[in-house]
Amino acid sequence: MTKTKKTDAQTGATKAPSKLDQLVTLLNQPGGVDLATMMTATGWQAHSVRGALAGSLRKKGHQIISEKVDGLRTWRIEEQAAA
Asked: What pTM did the predictor assign?
């Protein structure tokens, strides 16, 4: 008999959102989000957050917009028009 691990679906446990999911939630805010907030939410260093924005999230199809207003850079996800 082999031991098998129960999946979350079998145990009824809910999975915590991934750090990328947390970033997507922050980036979907109307005013966007600054780097310090993203670093605090994920526990990542600045270069890791920027790498996730430029790499993983763009590869998943998110269009990341960066804006600098009054000396503060913010990022947000631009909603894509329905096809």
From this structure: 0.75
